[in-house]
Amino acid sequence: MPFLGQDWRSPGQSWVKTADGWKRFLDEKSGSFVSDLSSYCNKEVYDKENLFNSLNYDVAAKKRKKDMLNSKTKTQYFHQEKWIYVHKGSTKERHGYCTLGEAFNRLDFSTAILDSRRFNYVVRLLELIAKSQLTSLSGIAQKNFMNILEKVVLKVLEDQQNIRLIRELLQTLYTSLCTLVQRVGKSVLVGNINMWVYRMETILHWQQQLNNIQITRPAFKGLTFTDLPLCLQLNIMQRLSDGRDLVSLGQVAPDLHVLSEDRLLWKKLCQYHFSERQIRKRLILSDKGQLDWKKMYFKLVRCYPRKEQYGDTLQLCRHCHILSWKHLTSETTSLNSLF
């Protein structure tokens, strides 16, 4: 196989780095250039032709196996290592980055959505890609993206949790695709325009399924949330980081509605997500002359980003430059969160 890089040194030859630059290695006895190292090795062990054929056979076998696994849309090629080595810089022989398609496979996003610690993080990453990175997705990255998205939707339809989160993700993706396909043009996205139209129809079908979902009441008749003391109910509600969840919880029962309107509850929620300076710029007084923390929260959400916290995230080690999930990385390494 010819060398396709920009390096002017041919592979298979012996070169020595000197003060004047790289020079061909000379045989001390004959004074001629050494074209290969077979003269120094046992011919039976280092048969060049047999070695070349065996390497070609191994590469071809691995390629056929990978192509067979990737031949179907819903089948992915999985790696045993759940991490990616990120090079510090690019050279002529290697690139200093990893593609999204490679990250989807190597970091095992399909299994990550089944972990409650990673689910929200993966959904947030998919949302960021849907907003601004669709045009940079390669063919394999598009396939992996849609496969993971399908698994996310099926999981939500099965366990009936995080419905609003996935609705927002699908709406964001559909809006981005409408802009890129209809207004900008088909040349912006990689792939056939009919394939993207089919994917948009699939997204609409998923949205319809989520809209028609009926929450089944659990058959368990033991202790419920409303049976707990009020102080415990309020303590649990303080653990919710989204104000819309508090509003939804208050619509379940009249007693919960009273707790969901607690001023201290909304004050702590505002102080958790926003700084004091941001809060002072968006003060709202109620009819009684007190601060209306609930209205302030929803106004602050429209003006500033909320604080985001996840149970497990992707981390990049500063020393070994390994990109992996946080709980898989050694505690002794120095980490930088990617998100």
UniProtKB/TrEMBL annotation:
Keywords: Cytoplasm, Nucleus, Ubl conjugation pathway. It comes from the Eukaryota. It holds the Pfam family F-box-like. The keyword Cell membrane does not apply. Residues 226-271 form the F-box domain. The keyword Transmembrane does not apply. It is found in: Cytoplasm; Nucleus. Pathway: Protein modification; protein ubiquitination. Its main location: cytoplasm. Substrate recognition component of a SCF (SKP1-CUL1-F-box protein) E3 ubiquitin-protein ligase complex which mediates the ubiquitination and subsequent proteasomal degradation of target proteins. Probably recognizes and binds to phosphorylated target proteins during skeletal muscle atrophy. Recognizes TERF1. Part of the SCF (SKP1-CUL1-F-box) E3 ubiquitin-protein ligase complex SCF(FBXO32) formed of CUL1, SKP1, RBX1 and FBXO32. This is F-box only protein 32. The gene is FBXO32.
